[in-house]
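INTERNAL AUDIT FORM
Audit reference: QA-55
Scope: verify that the stored structure record matches its stored sequence.
Auditor: D.O.
Record contents follow.
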Amino acid sequence: AGQSIQQIDPAVLKIPSAQLFYGLAENYYYHAQSLAPAEDADFSNIWFWDSAGQRLVREKVNKSYFNELMVMRVCEWALKADAGFGQAIGLWLAAYFKAESADFDMPNYFGPGHADATVYATTAGAEYLHQALARAIKDENAYV
């Protein structure tokens, strides 16, 4: 993989993985066409690895909030790569508020009793809430 990246864009090898994940999350947040789900279906797929079954498992989700769910997921990857990468928390919060605005139940993989965005925003603290709010103001997104 490293050799392929070296041929495509060697500068990427010097960027921390958390930053790369964050950039991908922002592309999902702003619905980059290159990341759009297939247009010929009324749902999108989010894939998970089932370590017990050693296989990929598909979770079908409504297309109206697919991008926001992917933002949340990729922000979590950024934080796994660097637990101190706080920008990912603010973006995760903004995406969760956007996902809730789609007015669909959260997917099954959230699990029963999963807290809503307001609970996460409150517990995350002012720093991350301000990041989400700044993004909402910049984007003129009243729901976020």
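Auditor finding: record pair retrieved intact. Residues 26 and 71 are 7 Å apart (CA to CA).
Action required: none
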